[in-house]
């Protein structure tokens, strides 16, 4: 609902659905659902909690998070100014409110997002708070209920906000392993990194009537495809029709429905978790054998001294150079005996993802990577390396197969992002990415990821939750493309070079933030000038990183992998480790 004239706004609201002028008190009594047309207005987190939980049962989890600006982000405004304004406008410290409560007498841990706070964006603090809520659910052996409302990952925290998709997902994986129910309630709107992680990798997914959910937003899809979108695209009913949600629920029925679901889960007595809790938490000392903590100086690059640092925008252009070696090139030059495996076994074989069995210096591995191309025809045939849901599900199948065969997984990441098309949305792009991310946090075999060119947001992370993350010297890895970031925050696509600098997307910067463990230096000017030398260096780096992982027991491997991603939460708060 948007307010009418400022003088009247406390008394009257205009319905966004039918434009009726409604008395606010009457609207509130009707749970902010228009009595004329049934449109569900957006709710802030405090009001949502008031509607959902039993009166007097809510026990808020502490916020306790200092302000953080981990990459010193500035667009037209410094990020701390935007945070301060969001806090003043909402009265909330962050874009999520968390606590424990009962719903119809059934206990649950709840995390409720608030879209009014910077578009409900997922930053380090939000990821940390939801993760703590999930850990509280695990400790108390109660179900977890997430109410989502978000535009996606928070651009102002760069790749660190992208990492939160993995952090929260592994907390959900912990609840799965412990046999505890997880439920997400999609409210309007739920998009991007939130849709492609904890909004869709829970056991049950409910959509509130009128909610829209998707991986890519309608504006982006229209821009990319140049087509008008089908009627009702990405709405709750669309999601139900395409098998992506369990049910669509009217707001007035939501509490009763949740209560019934929690009651069903309450009948089973879950066993203790089979996988050990992820201790110690990131605030404490890191254990032996781990990569450097975020904020420490990055691991030194192997090989020769580094040439002068390039401008971030120049690096973006090199990362996208059509001559840059592709995954199939590396399969030919770095690996031996590649046997490609096709298909997701559900109806498709995505050409933007290739994978199969190969050997690395005589050792069997599973290699999965995005495939672009060198010519326009190749790029078109491979959808520019933008994976469809079938591509993500093929990758998932191969990861699981590798785990069963005891083979390490090597992923080669080079994608502008996951496919932002109509068909991808119809086939559950968000859930496909979310399931890959969650599965990688549980995979009982070594996983080594290399960002070889473009590491574009959730589509990249779907192959990059790994024990070790390497990055070619002139690759980039980012929560959003510089053009996309510029269009939203400046707002002017021509500000892409500034956005590229602000996002801290280069290998040295990401190494400094702990997102990347090691830089693989490129020869002379860049990889495309000497693919053979690049291949030799990549092979050496892969071997050096893989061999130490081979003897680590699977449970230890998984525990360390989770520690690696767990530390991107409030480990960041208060520290300012931007690449400088
Ligand atoms: Zn209405």
Structural class: alpha/beta
Name the hetero compounds present.
zinc ion
Through-space gap between termini: 44 Å
Radius of gyration: 23 Å
Query: In percent, how helical is the residue content?
Result: 25-40%
Low-confidence sequence ranges: 1-6, 268-306, 572-580
Query: Which term fits the overall shape?
Result: globular
Could you report the average pLDDT, rounded to the nearest whole number?
90
Provide the β-strand percentage band: 15-25%
Query: Count of DSSP helices?
Result: 21
Biggest sheet descriptor:
8 strands, mixed
Total beta-strand segments: 19
Label this structure with key terms.
disordered C terminus, alpha/beta, single chain, 37% helix, eight-stranded mixed β-sheet, 580 residues, binds zinc ion
């Amino acid at each position: 609902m948007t307010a009418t004239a400022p003088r009247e706004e406390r008394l009257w609201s205009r319905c966004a659905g039918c434009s009726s002028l409604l008395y606010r008190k009457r609207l509130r009594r009707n749970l902010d659902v228009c009595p004329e047309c049934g449109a569900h207005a957006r709710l802030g987190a405090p009001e949502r909690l008031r509607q959902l939980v039993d009166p007097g049962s809510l026990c808020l989890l502490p916020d306790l998070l200092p302000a953080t600006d981990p990459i010193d982000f500035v667009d037209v405004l410094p990020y701390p100014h935007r945070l301060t304004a969001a806090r003043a406008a909402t009265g909330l410290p962050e874009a999520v409110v968390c606590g424990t409560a009962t719903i119809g007498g059934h206990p649950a841990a709840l995390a409720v997002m608030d879209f009014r706070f910077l578009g409900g964006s997922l930053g380090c603090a939000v990821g940390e708070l939801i993760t703590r809520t999930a850990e509280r659910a695990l400790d108390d052996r109660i179900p977890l209920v997430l109410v989502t409302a978000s535009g996606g990952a928070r651009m102002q925290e760069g790749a660190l906000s992208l990492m939160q998709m993995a952090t929260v997902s592994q907390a959900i994986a912990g609840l799965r392993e412990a046999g505890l129910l997880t439920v997400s309630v999609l409210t309007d709107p739920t998009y991007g990194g939130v849709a492609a992680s904890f909004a869709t990798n829970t056991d049950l997914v409910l959509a509130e009537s009128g909610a829209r959910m998707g991986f890519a937003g309608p504006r982006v899809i229209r821009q990319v495809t140049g087509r008008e979108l089908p009627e009702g695209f990405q709405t709750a009913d669309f999601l139900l029709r395409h098998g992506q949600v369990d049910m669509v629920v009217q707001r007035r029925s939501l509490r009763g429905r949740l209560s019934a679901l929690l009651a069903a889960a309450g009948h089973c007595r879950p066993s203790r978790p089979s996988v050990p809790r992820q201790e110690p938490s990131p605030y404490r000392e890191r254990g032996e054998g781990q990569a450097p903590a975020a904020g420490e100086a990055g691991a030194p690059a192997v090989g020769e001294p580094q040439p002068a640092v390039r401008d971030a925008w120049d690096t973006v252009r090199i990362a996208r150079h059509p001559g840059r070696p592709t995954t199939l090139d590396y399969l030919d030059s770095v690996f031996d005996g590649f046997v490609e495996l096709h298909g997701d076994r559900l109806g498709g074989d995505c050409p933007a993802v290739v994978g199969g069995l190969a050997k690395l210096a005589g050792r069997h591995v599973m290699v999965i990577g995005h495939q672009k191309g060198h010519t326009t025809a190749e790029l078109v045939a491979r959808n520019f390396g933008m994976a469809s849901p079938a591509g993500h599900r093929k990758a998932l199948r191969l990861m699981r197969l590798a785990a069963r065969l005891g083979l390490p997984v090597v992923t080669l990441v080079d994608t502008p992002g996951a496919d932002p098309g109509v068909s991808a949305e119809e086939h559950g792009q968000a859930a496909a990415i979310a399931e890959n991310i969650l599965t990688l946090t549980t995979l009982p075999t070594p996983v080594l990821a290399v960002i070889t060119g473009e590491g574009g947001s959730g589509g990249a992370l779907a192959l990059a939750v790994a024990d070790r993350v390497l990055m070619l010297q002139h690759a980039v890895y980012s929560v959003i493309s510089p053009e996309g970031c510029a269009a939203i925050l400046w707002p002017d696509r021509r500000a892409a070079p500034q956005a590229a600098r602000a996002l801290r997307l280069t290998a040295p910067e990401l190494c400094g933030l702990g997102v990347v463990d090691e830089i693989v230096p490129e020869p002379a000017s860049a990889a495309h000038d000497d693919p053979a030398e690049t291949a030799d260096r990549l092979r050496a780096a892969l071997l050096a990183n893989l061999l130490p992982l081979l003897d680590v027991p699977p449970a230890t491997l998984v525990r360390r992998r989770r520690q690696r991603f767990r530390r991107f939460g409030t480990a960041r708060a208060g520290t300012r480790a931007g690449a400088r």
